[in-house]
Write a structure and sequence with these properties.
- By secondary structure, this protein is of the alpha/beta class.
- The chain folds into two domains: 238 residues, Type I PLP-dependent aspartate aminotransferase-like (Major domain) (Aspartate Aminotransferase, domain 2); 126 residues, Aspartate Aminotransferase, domain 1 (Alpha-Beta Complex), CATH 3.90.1150.10.
- 36% of the residues lie in helices and 15% in strands.
- The protein has eleven helices and twelve strands.
- Strands 1-7-6-5-4-2-3 form a seven-stranded mixed β-sheet, sandwiched between helices. Strands 8-9-12-11-10 form a five-stranded mixed β-sheet, covered by helices on one side.
- The longest helix has 20 residues.
- 49% of the residues are buried.
- The structure holds pyridoxal-5'-phosphate.
- Pyridoxal-5'-phosphate binds next to helix 3.
């Protein structure tokens, strides 16, 4: 069966089985459990919830492994780091990884005695610093620079060095890229972005093919209480059915936008792995089904970027990405990433491509003025 069809039906009731196609969200803290608790599958709301089960089954289809849902992408990230690392261990992070992950490593992880090494995503730079490492964290395409690394090659190098491999698949999404099939031990993602895609939910997940690792993640979630709310999970499940449609549309429009930007005189650089000129294009083509809905580009400076954003009438100025509404922001306003003051991260939505392009062209005219 085609992957789009599998995702559309994931976690739904089997076609011939009578009953609701998807049950509504189950709000529950307390299950009635007479006698021996071991006789009951559902005992307490922090341990289990039927709404989570249907969602995790769907995420399993998306990622090609067993999935555990968390309250946010960062809760999912913390669970992987917390279950894998201990005093004396070394973690190798991408130099330009999602900023909060580096902050977590330099605060909490450092406090518990974990050392951090940073290396660039581009050119598989992390392969050079694996000696003695316990965990290799990948993010490809990286965020916001959209650098690319070769997942299979890095998995091979990391496993040879005795390290486990985690891929942050948020920017790529499980629809476009499957790190577990490429040998990664874990895939982590923020479902706040394209998986749910409507700018209204914070959620995250981890998936793995190793039963013990999945059990450790579930125990972590239960003990730390990093559980997702049933309403969010149910909405997320509802959103997943349209993910192939949404992401396919975003990829197609992003390619058009990147191509327009790459010849526009106001733009000094475009970062999009779908462009043949992108240094990671060949690798991205091999390991991704399409190149995603985020396009980063550079204007000469802060004033240009602010004039660009101020002139947009359709595209909203906002952080985050992956939603059906196009958004853009000047990334350097947050600090923390090694990027220029005119660096724009643009998240392509599902408005008509002509309208998106027209709005951007108008913005670029203002930027140049
Ligand atoms: C947003 C994001 C996260 C964190 O996810 P939250 O749902 O905001 O906690 C982690 N990694 C990447 C690449 C992200 O874009």
């Amino acid at each position: 069966m085609h992957r789009d069809t599998q995702i559309l039906n994931a976690g739904y009731r089997p076609v011939k089985e009578p009953g609701p196609m998807v049950a509504g969200p189950q709000f529950v803290s307390t299950y009635v459990t007479p006698g021996d608790p071991a006789q009951h599958r559902l005992t307490y709301g922090r341990f289990e919830n039927p709404t989570w089960q249907a969602w995790e089954e769907s995420l399993g289809v998306l990622e090609g492994g067993d999935a555990v849902s968390f309250a946010s992408g960062m809760a999912a990230t913390s669970a992987v780091l917390g279950t894998c690392l201990g005093p004396g261990d070394t973690v190798v992070l991408p130099e330009e990884s999602y900023y909060t992950i580096r902050t977590l490593a330099s605060t909490w992880l450092e406090k518990i005695g974990v050392r951090m090494r940073l290396a660039p995503t581009r050119g598989n730079g992390q392969a050079n610093v694996l000696e003695g490492a316990r965990l290799l964290w990948l993010e490809t395409p990286s965020n916001p620079h959209l650098d690319v690394c070769d997942i299979a090659a890095l998995v091979e190098a990391a496993h040879a060095a005795g390290a486990v491999v985690v891929a942050d698949n948020t920017t790529a999404t499980g629809y476009l890229q499957q790190p577990l099939a490429l040998g990664a031990d874990y895939v982590v993602a923020s479902d706040t972005k394209a998986v749910t895609g409507h700018a209204d939910i914070i959620l995250g997940h981890v998936a793995s093919r190793d039963r013990e690792r999945v059990t450790a993640l579930r125990d972590w979630r239960t003990r730390h209480g990093a559980i997702p709310g049933p309403m969010e999970v149910w909405l997320a499940h509802r959103s997943l059915a349209t993910m192939p449609l949404r992401v396919t549309c975003q990829c197609a429009y992003a390619a058009r936008l990147a191509s327009m930007l790459s010849t526009h005189p106001a733009v000094t650089a475009v970062h999009y792995p779908g462009l043949a000129t992108h240094p990671g294009h060949e690798v991205a083509k091999r390991q991704m089904r399409a190149f995603g809905g985020v396009v980063s580009f550079e204007l000469p400076g802060r004033a240009h970027a602010e004039r660009f954003l101020g002139a947009l009438r359709l595209v909203r100025e906002a952080t985050s990405f992956g939603g059906v509404h196009s958004t853009a922001e000047r990334r350097a306003r947050w600090g923390g990433d090694a990027i220029g003051d005119g660096f724009i991260r643009f998240s392509v939505g599902c408005e008509a491509a002509e309208d998106i392009l027209e709005d951007v062209e108008e913005g670029l005219r203002a930027a140049e003025a």
